[in-house]
TrEMBL record:
<protein>
    <submittedName>
        <fullName>Cytosolic phospholipase A2 gamma-like</fullName>
    </submittedName>
</protein>
<dbReference type="GO" id="GO:0005509">
    <property type="term" value="F:calcium ion binding"/>
</dbReference>
<keyword id="KW-0442">Lipid degradation</keyword>
<dbReference type="InterPro" id="IPR016035">
    <property type="entry name" value="Acyl_Trfase/lysoPLipase"/>
</dbReference>
<dbReference type="Pfam" id="PF01735">
    <property type="entry name" value="PLA2_B"/>
</dbReference>
<dbReference type="GO" id="GO:0005829">
    <property type="term" value="C:cytosol"/>
</dbReference>
<dbReference type="GO" id="GO:0005654">
    <property type="term" value="C:nucleoplasm"/>
</dbReference>
<keyword id="KW-0378">Hydrolase</keyword>
<dbReference type="GO" id="GO:0047498">
    <property type="term" value="F:calcium-dependent phospholipase A2 activity"/>
</dbReference>
<dbReference type="GO" id="GO:0005544">
    <property type="term" value="F:calcium-dependent phospholipid binding"/>
</dbReference>
<dbReference type="GO" id="GO:0005635">
    <property type="term" value="C:nuclear envelope"/>
</dbReference>
<keyword id="KW-0443">Lipid metabolism</keyword>
<feature type="domain" description="PLA2c">
    <location>
        <begin position="35"/>
        <end position="591"/>
    </location>
</feature>
<keyword id="KW-0732">Signal</keyword>
<dbReference type="GO" id="GO:0046475">
    <property type="term" value="P:glycerophospholipid catabolic process"/>
</dbReference>
<feature type="signal peptide">
    <location>
        <begin position="1"/>
        <end position="24"/>
    </location>
</feature>
<dbReference type="InterPro" id="IPR002642">
    <property type="entry name" value="LysoPLipase_cat_dom"/>
</dbReference>
């Protein structure tokens, strides 16, 4: 039987790396804007870049052009290729592997060829780590050393300074407080060892030293109703919004109350803890939980009741994992291990559920839910009086009610009341529910297809679990559904899915981007398909944080993939430059 600790779903998005720097002070909301300023806070429908992003890209192209010169790639100021690096989902595996890939790109002087960096799910944790340094692509410091790992979350220090306890207690008073905030603080502090309270909009004032970052999420209601044009959501330093609909809001005002495009209530911008709690929230989709439930449970007919039970069980499991952070007292550890066992035993209690009617299954699962909560509540009451008990009690008071509501990524809907026939029914409520985009497509192709960013080359190291090439075929189908260009995927290549090569190129024609696709485990580092499967098990998403040795080994695998294919990457960058110059010449001739 797998322990509840080992089954913690939170490991789907954990990054066992740490951010540098000291804890930031909370940022207060700014003053109400003038009516003239308010009119500029929301934009759309539009398929153009925001003015801020457009100016950044203009400046960044100068960096790229100089980089191309160092690589002996011919280009001109008006034909700089638009290149984006895409980070996939894949939990800790994706975060560590992306870090390794970027380390090698830095060593090979390839980082400055990038205009953009995009990420979903696990890769966004590495992005946040890197962008906490305004000069990361120049400094090339890719630290994985913790800075606060020796301070328990419940320490008296964290009850005073803006650590996890303080942060969560303050956020719990917000009207739109959801499990994303809980998820963000759990992952940020427990595994990242740092509460990153900086604001994404603060990066809008930075120079063009680093590639432009794009974080992706999806809107849960639109995803559940298959409303394709309103599913994908992106966060950038300047704007956040729906790229297919073309509706955006100034990132500093995402979360403020709007109606009919007018600002009604100014609220603080979400910090990076909240944002990462959204973009890494695979657990928000109940179907994700069902995928890792015991096989016999998935045979039940209880439907919604089963999902309710699984989400309560797994969330309590996550909390129990957090509770043991920093505990060194042998007695306290023994008590906690007993709690873990009681929670696990109740979840796996041998009752012949499959032999019961649907109604009886529902009753039994509801009984278990209540029992699980009571087990935790009783354990808290029996703790010895002290700082730890106070902190645990308040944490439970905050989290347990959210298990019933099961709300994730709740933030004010800036298109609420907008008079646009293109705004679908799934966006007619006051709030949005933003969750992990990897639930839809585990690579962020969407933000980089089409005329808006006009990308020539997508470099996509693939760290996902699941069937190889699935992200490619899903993205191809998505592009067809929304009418965006996408290169042809050779069906013969899909036959390599069990033992892929380490490097594929899907060349674009006309306005299609070329895609470089680089599987993490492949024919170069695995002798056969059995070893590919074994590696995926070794570095599986659902496990405790990797050891330092495991992190180093995985980083080296990712670095080798990039190192082995440097010449091929440079060749495709040259091809992208040549193709853009050709397109430029055609345009000039037409004029």
């Amino acid at each position: 039987m797998v322990s509840c600790r080992g089954r913690a779903v939170v490991l789907a998005c954990f990054v066992c790396v740490s951010l540098r720097g000291l804890l930031a002070q909370p940022v207060n909301a700014t003053a109400e804007p003038s009516p003239e300023t308010s009119a500029k806070l929301v934009r759309g429908p539009s398929d153009a870049l925001s003015p801020g992003e457009a100016e950044f890209i203009r400046q960044r192209k100068e960096v790229v052009l100089a980089s191309l010169g160092r690589l002996n790639i011919s280009s001109t100021a008006d034909s700089v290729p638009h290149i984006a690096l895409l980070g996939s989902g894949g939990g800790q595996r994706a975060a560590v592997a992306l870090l390794g890939s970027l380390q090698q790109m830095g060593q090979d002087d390839l980082l400055d060829t990038l205009l953009y960096m995009g990420g979903v799910s696990g890769s966004t944790w590495t992005m946040a780590l890197l962008y906490s340094d305004p000069q990361w692509s120049v400094n090339k410091v890719f630290s994985s050393q913790g800075v606060h790992g020796d301070i328990p979350w419940w320490s008296p220090v964290n009850l005073i300074v803006p650590g996890p306890y303080w942060w969560l207690k303050a956020k719990s008073k917000d009207e739109d407080f959801s499990l994303s905030e809980v998820w963000g603080v759990l992952t940020s502090y427990l595994f990242m060892k740092h509460m990153d309270q900086r604001l994404l909009s603060a990066e809008a004032s930075r120079d063009s030293t680093n590639p432009y970052p794009v974080y992706s999420a999806i809107e849960k209601e639109c995803f559940n109703t298959n409303t394709t044009d309103a599913v994908w959501f992106e966060f950038t330093p300047h704007e956040a919004g729906f790229p297919e609909l073309g509706h955006f809001v100034s990132t500093a005002y995402l979360g403020s109350g709007f109606e009919g495009g007018e600002l009604k209530e100014r609220k603080p911008e979400m910090d990076m803890v909240q944002l990462l709690g959204i973009v890494g929230s695979a657990l928000a989709n109940e179907d994700s939980i069902a995928e890792i439930a015991p096989p016999w449970m998935n045979k039940l007919t209880a439907g919604t009741a089963l999902k309710d039970h699984l989400r309560i069980y797994f969330t309590l499991t996550i909390l129990v994992d957090m509770l043991d952070s920093g505990i060194t007292n042998v007695t306290d550890l023994a008590k906690l291990e007993e709690l873990q066992k009681r929670v696990s035993d109740k979840h796996l209690e041998v009752v012949p559920l499959h032999n019961l009617t649907k109604e009886k299954q529902v009753e039994e699962l509801q009984r278990r839910n209540l029992a699980l909560v009571e087990i935790v509540q009783t354990w808290v009451k029996e703790l010895d009086n002290g700082v730890y008990k106070v902190a645990v009690t308040e944490l439970m008071e905050v989290v347990l009610p959210l298990l019933i509501k099961w709300q994730w990524g709740t933030t004010e809907n800036f298109v609420y009341g907008v008079k646009d026939s293109e705004v679908p029914d799934c966006l007619q409520s006051r709030v949005l529910n933003l969750i992990d985009a990897g639930i839809s497509i585990n690579l962020p192709y969407e933000s980089f297809l089409g005329k808006k960013r006009d990308v020539d080359l997508l470099i996509a190291p693939e760290f996902s679990a699941g069937e190889m090439f699935e992200t490619l075929t899903l993205a191809r189908d998505y592009a067809a559904a929304v009418g965006k260009p996408f290169p042809v995927i050779d069906e013969q290549v899909l036959l390599d899915k069990d033992w892929p090569k380490d490097f594929y190129v899907f060349p674009g024609e006309n306005d299609q981007p070329t895609i470089i696709f680089m599987p993490l485990f492949n024919r170069i580092n695995c002798k056969d398909e059995a070893e590919v499967k074994a590696r995926m098990v070794e570095y599986s998403t659902f496990q405790r944080p990797f050891s330092a040795e495991k992190i180093a080994a995985l980083q080296e695998i990712a670095r080798d993939n990039m190192r082995n294919n440097k010449d091929a990457v440079v060749r495709e960058i040259q091809n992208a430059s040549t193709r853009r110059q050709g397109r430029r010449n055609v345009t000039d001739s037409a004029l």
